[in-house]
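[recover] target loaded
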């Protein structure tokens, strides 16, 4: 379905981004990965996912908190694969503290990585998408783009912000073949959430299993994690022809979290 297209997925050396990159490769898209840490393992996993289509993969290690890095990454994608047809803004970090105690540098980093980076990638990807009259921008927001939780001021502000950016980008391109939508997961057991489970277990002196059970029980009625594979399939749907007129939605996959 996506053969000949190129996808760039930010923050895709781990977790949800890697799951989405694999799902897009399975549909035949070439993929530019981004993110910190080992790139060889993720590159091999995405190459393997797209083996039937002979997809090409590359990695750029741009720091999503730096506009100049993002510009270099977008230029790299264009020179390596010709154009970015599918942009997935996924890179994100978390920090947990009350507003009055929230470290200013953590606030700035979360807003830069979780929100401002998507503005930069979007503004840089749009001209070629508009010229081709086809493009898909998928913003990995969160259920925290729709509702709040205590201790997560920067994250919730950034995620509400990216839902807003999604709507405006969708509206500005509404008469074209370029769509923009957001995905809003509930809990997904990635390193980002494992840190929160570990912190809960340590703070309460409880086991990892009990901390996981409590974490899900507090917010997620299904008592189940959403998986990167399921989120990957939602991204594939947004890229399909069936989603040509899906514009500006914030689609939660959250086990009923936001339905409460
Ligand atoms: P993760 O920690 O597994 O992966 C984060 C990725 O972002 C990694 O590849 C990391 O290297 C990269 N990254 C971090 N800082 C970066 C930077 N400055 N520049 C470039 N890359 C950077 O996290 P995840 O859980 O897969 O989260 C991915 C996205 O999904 C985030 O935007 C997160 O907010 C969102 N999300 C996660 C959950 C969840 O429960 N895990 C729920 C809702 C939304």
């Amino acid at each position: 379905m996506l053969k000949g297209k190129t996808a760039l997925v930010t923050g895709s050396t781990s977790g949800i981004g890697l799951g989405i990159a694999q799902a897009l490769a399975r549909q035949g898209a070439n993929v530019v990965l981004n993110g910190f840490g080992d790139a060889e393992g993720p590159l091999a996993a995405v190459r393997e996912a797209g083996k039937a289509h002979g997809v090409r993969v590359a990695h750029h290690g741009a720091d999503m908190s730096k506009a100049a890095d993002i510009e270099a990454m977008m230029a790299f994608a264009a020179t390596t694969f010709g154009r970015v047809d599918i942009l997935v803004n996924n890179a994100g970090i978390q920090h947990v503290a009350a507003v009055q105690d929230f470290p200013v540098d953590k606030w700035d980093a979360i807003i830069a990585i979780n929100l401002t980076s998507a503005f930069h990638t979007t503004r840089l990807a749009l001209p070629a998408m508009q010229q081709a009259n086809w493009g898909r921008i998928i913003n990995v927001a969160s259920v925290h783009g729709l509702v709040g939780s205590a201790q997560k001021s920067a994250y919730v502000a950034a995620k509400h912000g990216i839902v807003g950016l999604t709507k405006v980008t969708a509206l500005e391109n509404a008469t074209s073949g370029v769509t923009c939508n957001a995905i809003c997961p509930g809990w997904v057991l990635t390193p980002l959430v494992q840190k929160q489970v570990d912190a809960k277990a340590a703070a309460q002196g409880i086991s990892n299993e009990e901390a996981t059970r409590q974490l899900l029980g507090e917010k997620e009625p299904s008592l189940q994690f959403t998986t990167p594979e399921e989120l990957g399939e939602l991204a594939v749907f947004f890229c399909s022809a069936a989603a040509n007129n899906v514009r500006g939605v914030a689609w939660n996959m959250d086990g009923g979290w936001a339905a409460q």
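[recover] notes: The chain has two domains: 6-188+226-255, 189-225.
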